[in-house]
Design goal:
By secondary structure, this protein is of the alpha+beta class.
Length: about 210
């Protein structure tokens, strides 16, 4: 399985296309998810669809499963039957990446106690007007680090009494995974382009149809 995702990072033409197109597509995702200049929470789902579309473009629709049951909270797609988690983060560092979304403190604790890495990760680090990246973090690297540092150092629970939106992988753990020799990465220069975007145009066009 792992070799399939590695193919994305070893396909020189595709790497160049990702460097060129990903900032544009993620900018579109932000525009689609914005109201009055503020980006909404749904931007995460739109970004996720952009990455799933990349998998379909590379490997074909029949090999990418997108209808994932809600009982698999970390799995966003399956490639050749194997689960993949897609994560995005904005900024220079690697803090704040959610493993699951929950406001329930008890559920967060239960998640930490039962968690063990079980799928490959595709991570996009968005850093507008600067360098970021697109990374493939294989499952074996995650398991190796988890076994080495333990769940308390790998998983960050929400602070009691606050209203956070989920359980995170620690900044230290994610930074270590990014540096792992098995992790693959594409450096991306996150520059915005001028886009003439009207969120209603597509729907108006559809109303015009018969």
């Amino acid at each position: 399985m792992s070799t399939c995702l590695i193919e994305i990072f070893e396909d020189e033409k595709l790497v160049e296309k990702i460097k060129r197109r990903l900032p544009y597509l993620f900018q579109l995702a932000e525009l689609e998810s914005s109201r009055a200049g503020k980006t909404g929470m749904e931007v995460g789902s739109v970004r996720e669809r952009v990455i799933v579309a990349l998998l379909i473009y590379k490997f074909g629709k029949t090999n990418v499963e997108t209808e994932i049951p809600i009982t698999e909270p970390e799995v966003d797609a399956k490639l050749f039957g194997e689960p993949i988690s897609i994560k995005t983060i904005t900024g220079k560092g690697f803090g704040g990446v959610k493993m699951i979304w929950t406001v329930n403190g008890q559920k967060a604790k239960e998640f930490r106690e039962s968690y063990y890495p079980h799928c490959d990760i595709l991570l996009v680090q968005i850093n507008w007007n600067d360098m970021g990246g697109f990374y493939y973090i294989p499952l074996d690297a995650q398991k190796r680090l988890f076994d080495k540092i333990g769940r308390e150092n790998y998983i960050k629970l929400p602070k009691p009494g606050t209203n956070p939106r989920g359980v995170e992988i620690t900044k230290e753990a994610l930074s270590t995974l990014i540096e792992d020799s098995k992790t693959k990465g594409i450096k991306i220069n996150w520059q915005r382009t001028k886009i003439d975007f009207n969120p209603y145009r597509r729907w108006v066009d559809l109303w015009r149809g018969d």
